[in-house]
Here is the input.
Amino acid sequence: MELWFTEKHTKNVELSIKVDRQLYSAQSEFQRIDIFDSPEFGRFLTLDGYMMLTEKDEFIYHEMIVHVPMSVHPNVKKVLVIGAGDGGVIRELTRYQTLEHIDLVEIDEMVVNVCKEYLPLTSCSMEDPRVHITYQDGLKFVRRRQNEYDLIIVDSTDPFGPGEGLFTKEFYGNCYKALKDDGIMVNQHESPFYKDDAIAMQRAHKRIIESFPISKVYQAHIPTYPSGHWLFGFASKKYHPIYDFDALRFKSLGLKTKYYNCQLHIGAFALPNYVEELLEDVE
Here is the structure.
């Protein structure tokens, strides 16, 4: 008998991945957590039946959500990461020796513990002494912060369930206040391709542009996410993601990446016409 994991992308579209075995399954206080092992994508994590990451393509997401803002801001010392219990964002951030402090705020402690046990490729840097983990709702945590962070990375689940509050105008406004005068916020911005995902993307973009003077969107190709076409939001008080991008500084670090590079950094902000039109409708 063959075992397959299937995720509904729309009422009419499904993604199925052949599975060798299910390594873990449990219901936390917030969501169902599953770890599967597959011949094509290696181990992968799902929450409430939705794909979060696979070992084969997670590097795309994590490199793009971290290295884009880190290559723009000239002096990041303190970072707030909301979500990201799998550790992939932390892994990429801790490669920067100049970083001094990383606050990781994850609502579900079980996610962190499960990923430490079953997903060592992403969770390998969670014990870095610069990383400080708080198990709390990110919305509540950021309310009490002001003028504190150089960079905020919002690695949230989709805008329903535990991650719903991380797509509100209140949340983005609180992130603005928690950032220093030249701070940057980056978030996963959903997909523009399927109708329901595009509506969620537009809603998030509208709320972000109401809080930040600079708000741009960039893209990446992530095969196991709905449609494979995924967006990120870049919101800033001061720095422009292209005009203030310092390619020489990034190259001087000697970081080896599998997806991100300096040419791609600029190209990622060149969006297809249909995406530009979706964004213009809410701007």
